[in-house]
Design goal:
The protein is an all-beta fold. The chain is built from no helices and eleven strands. The chain has strands spanning about 5, 10-15, 20-25, 35-40, 45-50, 55-60, 65-70, 75-80, 90-100, 110, 115-119.
Length: about 120
């Protein structure tokens, strides 16, 4: 079991930047896959970015070139740097982790942090 706690959300103007952080309650070295998902109002939760223990990353097409995911196993943290934010990036951002494949195998979730981008 691992608890994940997100922080760093808030209100930002379009074109601005935010950095989300996710703190894990124990070592993430054994958590193969970690990532960020977001859920806009009235929509399903969708993948934003993932990173595995080998630091291989994967991004949704809509955020490629603007968002960067990273993990710091020594600090038990993952991050999402979001640049050039757009109104369509608005939503609740969730941190997730899995010893296998996210959303296929057992997946741990944080409580979410709200990001609101004003146009």
């Amino acid at each position: 079991q691992v608890q994940l706690v997100e922080s760093g959300g808030g209100l930002v103007q379009a074109g601005g930047s935010l950095r989300l952080s996710c703190a894990a309650s124990r070592s993430i070295a054994s958590i193969y896959s970690m990532g960020w998902y977001r859920q806009a109002a009235g929509k399903q939760r969708a993948l934003v970015a993932t990173i595995n223990s080998g630091a291989t990353t994967n991004y949704a097409d809509s955020v490629k070139g603007r968002f960067t995911i990273s993990r710091d196993n020594a600090k038990n943290m993952i991050y999402l740097q979001m640049n050039n934010l757009k109104s369509e990036d608005t939503g609740v951002y969730y941190c997730a982790g899995s010893p296998g494949v996210l959303r296929t195998d057992r997946t741990y979730w944080g409580q979410g942090t709200q990001v609101t981008v004003s146009s």
